[in-house]
Amino acid sequence: MDADALLERLTQHRALGAAPVEELRWLVERGEFNQISRGTFYFRKGDRAEFLWIILTGHLAIYVDRGLGPRRVLEWRTGDVGGHMPYSRLVNSPGDVIALEPSEVLLIIRRYFPDLVRDCPTLTTTLVHVMIDRARAFTSSDLQDEKMVSLGRLAAGLAHELNNPASAVRRSAQLLVAQMDQAEASTRLLAGARLSEVQLDAIDRARRICRAAVGAMSPMERADREDTLDRWLDEHHLDPELATALIDSGATPESLDDLFAAVKGQDFANALRWIAACCSVRALGSEISTASSRMHELVSAIKRFSYMDQAQVPEAMDVAQGLRDSVSMLQHKARNKSVALGVTIEDRLPAALAIGSDLNQIWTNLIDNALDAAPAAGSVQVSAKSEQGGVVVRVVDNGPGIPRDIRERIFDPFFTTKGVGKGTGLGLEVTRRLVLRNNADIEVDSEPGRTEFRVLLRVAPSQTPRPTPAHADS
Description:
Helix 1 (about 5-10) packs across helix 2 (about 20-30) and helix 10 (about 320-335) packs parallel to helix 11 (about 355-375). It contains twelve helices and 13 strands. The strands form three sheets. Strands 1, 2, 3, 4, 5 and 6 form a six-stranded antiparallel β-sheet that branches. Strands 8-10-11-13-12 form a five-stranded mixed β-sheet. A two-stranded antiparallel sheet has the order 7-9. The longest helix is centred in the N-terminal third of the chain and has 71 residues, at about 120-190. By secondary structure, it is an alpha+beta fold. It starts with a helix and ends in a 17-residue tail after the last strand. It has three domains: about 5-120, Sandwich (Jelly Rolls), CATH 2.60.120; about 155-295, no CATH class; about 310-474, Heat Shock Protein 90 (2-Layer Sandwich). A hairpin with a 2-residue loop joins strand 10 and strand 11 (about 390-395). The relative contact order is 0.09.
């Protein structure tokens, strides 16, 4: 295309056409005209950002994969500008740029940018405004994608954490039905035995003794106790299956001897079956209560964690509760890696002025990264205390540390040391952005065997933590 025709088209360009003709001619003299067919990968992820693109006609889009698959983040149509721009810190393309329609583009290579800034003030001002708008769009997209990635991690963790108590409830409920049948059958037999008050008192004493749980036992202690009860039952020609029901109770050979002295024959066997059924019913009920309480705690934690239906404005936040919920959500990952994950909170920690969902996103990202960095059977310690006139939260792992040559880059977008498919390169960059949005500071110290991330939050003027959402316990 000849220079005059290209200049005429630039004067009609939506974004740049209002610039002085001399500045547009400057672009024509230094530009490279390209025609791109539909479906062409114009630039690939990781390609060096060398060009300013001036879209004369057509439709281009950039697809970025942040761990959720390629997603269209930005697009450019006739009259738009994109690519690298003056004052931009963009080094490499964050994704694949594809022509969605046949397109015509004028390219300006970045080595001309110093001259562009000097000779074309109107164009430079326009391009800076375009760059700011683009940064906003990328920022919004980054935050949303990272939240979705975090939500996926939390959903996987929550499913894992809920599976054990849910399985326990299901198993115990099934066993409870069978034990209720046994208890009802034994009750009918005892009711028809016409036992004396002395015998009924002896049965009731034995039942109260059996109700006393023996506490946690090691496999060896459990096996020894089962052997002891098996021997006693065998000596008295009773069903050895009763030992299974009595093993977690407070029953002892001595207490069984006392019952045996008061109640004889088949009545003793019926009484012991009734006592064993009562012990089993109580134990299974306790297991169901414990497991369902754990499920309730997890659901409450995830509700608090997400701050559902809450406005995204700074409030007085309970940092301690948020940290505990974040640790709870990631305990499954720590267990899978045999990492000791602990949290220490200063008593009467003051409330922080912050957005609750932002804080929990920060804690999740930092703890998750620390778990990735910690070695198998390693340690991640989370702490919070009043310090430096605010609230300081520390996340410390005993991993290999961050190499000095990349330490300045860890907060850069798309920078990651994790393998392909294991990291988006946005976790720490989004964390830093959220920290800044809450007028807080983040610092990192690292050496082999110890890496510490510190977040300094402002103390809320009221010093009163925002209450837990009412629906958290519903």
